[in-house]
């Protein structure tokens, strides 16, 4: 025990130094230190809250984005459907108009054709009626013998009898 | 020729106006039985006496004349009607 000895003066001095240091630390450093820690804690918590809020906002934005996208999609589909419907209507209208035009052209062509035929017939008859009738007369004079004439007369009388009834 | 026909038609018309009978003009001189049958049926229709005459010019069919009417059912008449219809555009 001779090698190990306590220097009471040094021990007291060191204890006093420690106490002074502790006191100074407690007065000057610790409050600051704890204040920094507390602030840091608050900052971290605030940041955590901010992150959570941002996450919430992000979710909200995602939902909003989804909603807007769906809305846009629906609107686009509606516009497309309407455009298709309009195109179909227009197509139908064009087809109807074409059909009417076709019918009109056919009708006009038919009418023109009929008029032309009638005109040719009339022209032919006008120019040839006398010849046609003379030929018909000659033909009928030969064709209608007494037997044939008898049949004609009896048939005509029968019609007259019917009219009288 | 036309004047003669017109005259005889006028005479027939005058006779018809005085007498109450009709004239049936035929193109062919049929046998008696046929004429009798035609005459009988014409009288039934007209409800009066019918006298038969012949005119080859009508070609076929018959013409009935009485004081009120002329029924032209002859071939010549039919041809004339065709001429009237198509000959005067």
Question: What does it look like?
Answer:
The complex is a heterodimer of chains A (165) and B (89). Chain A has two helices and no strands. The model of chain A has no long low-confidence stretch (mean pLDDT 90). Chain A is mostly helical and 165 residues long. Chain A has one domain (8-126). The mean pLDDT of chain B is 85. With 89 residues, chain B is α+β, with helices and mostly antiparallel strands. Chain B has helices at 2-18, 32-46, 75-86, and strands at residues 21-26, 49-54, 61-65, 70-74. The N and C termini of chain B lie far apart (29 Å). A four-stranded mixed sheet of chain B has the order 2-1-3-4. Helices cover 49% and strands 25% of the residues of chain B. The radius of gyration of chain B is 14 Å and the shape is globular. The chains are: A mainly alpha (165), B alpha+beta (89). The A-B interface holds A 122, 125-126, 129-130, 133, 136-137, 140-141, 144-146, 148-150, 152-154, 156-157, 160-161, 164 and B 26-28, 30, 34, 37-38, 41-42, 44-45, 59-62, 71, 73, 75-76, 79, 82-83, 86-87, 89.
Into which percent range does the helicity of residues of chain B fall? 40-55%
Content-based structural category of chain A: mainly alpha
First CA to last CA of chain A: what distance?
Answer: 175 Å
What general outline of chain B do the C-alpha atoms trace?
globular
Query: How does the major sheet of chain B shape up?
Result: 4 strands, mixed
What is the count of DSSP helices of chain A, taking H or I runs of 4+ residues? 2
- β-sheet strand percentage of chain B: 15-25%
Please give the radius of gyration of chain A in angstroms: 62 Å
Number of domains of chain B: 1
Q: What distance lies between the first and last C-alpha atoms of chain B, to the nearest angstrom?
A: 29 Å
Radius of gyration of chain B over all CA atoms, rounded: 14 Å
Going across the major beta sheet of chain B, what is the strand order? 2-1-3-4
């Amino acid at each position: 025990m001779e090698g190990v000895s306590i220097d009471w003066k040094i021990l007291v001095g060191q204890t006093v130094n420690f106490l002074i240091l502790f006191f100074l630390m407690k007065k000057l450093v610790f409050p600051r230190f704890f204040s920094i820690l507390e602030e840091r804690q608050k900052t971290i918590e605030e940041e955590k809250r901010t992150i959570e809020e941002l996450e919430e906002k992000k979710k909200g934005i995602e939902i909003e984005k989804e909603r807007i996208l769906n809305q846009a999609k629906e609107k686009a589909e509606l516009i497309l459907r309407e455009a298709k419907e309009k195109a179909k209507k227009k197509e139908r209208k064009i087809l109807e108009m074409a059909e009417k035009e076709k019918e009109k052209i056919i009708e006009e062509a038919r009418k023109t054709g009929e008029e032309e035929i009638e005109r040719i017939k009339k022209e032919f008859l006008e120019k040839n009626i006398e010849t046609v009738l003379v030929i018909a007369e000659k033909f009928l004079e030969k064709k209608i013998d007494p037997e044939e004439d008898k049949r004609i007369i009896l048939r005509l009388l029968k019609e007259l009898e019917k009219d009288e009834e | 020729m036309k004047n003669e026909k017109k005259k005889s038609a006028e005479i027939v018309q005058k006779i018809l106006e005085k007498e109450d009978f009709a004239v049936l003009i035929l193109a062919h001189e049929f046998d008696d039985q046929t004429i009798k049958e035609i005459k009988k049926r014409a009288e039934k229709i007209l409800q009066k006496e019918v006298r038969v005459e012949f005119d080859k010019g009508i070609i076929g069919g018959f013409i009935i004349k009485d004081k009120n009417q002329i029924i032209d059912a002859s071939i010549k008449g039919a041809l004339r009607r065709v001429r009237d219809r198509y000959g005067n555009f």
